[in-house]
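In the laboratory, one determines a bound structure by crystallizing the protein with its ligand and collecting diffraction data. In a computational setting the workflow is compressed into a single prediction: the sequence and the ligand go in, and a structural description comes out. We illustrate the idea with zinc ion.
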Amino acid sequence: MLESQTSSTLTGDHACARCGYNLRGLTRGGLCPECAAPVGDSLRGNLLHHQKVFTEAAGKARALQSGEVDTVPPQSGL
Ligand SMILES: [Zn+2]
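The predicted complex, in structure-token form:
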């Protein structure tokens, strides 16, 4: 059923396709709390690409929130 699918919670790291916010803990049918983009939109497409985007976006977001720019070590492996 679609309802059970849209109400399931994201247990992994998923970056918002629009702003890069980590959508983990939100529901698939919900909206990004940062930019209000549909969570479902961010779940489509290439997951590996999203993982890369998340890594880069998370580094920027972390720097913005902490007020300092730190270097995010490159992710190794897959
Ligand atoms: Zn967003």
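The chain has a mean pLDDT of 78. Keep in mind that any predicted model is a hypothesis to be tested, not a measurement.
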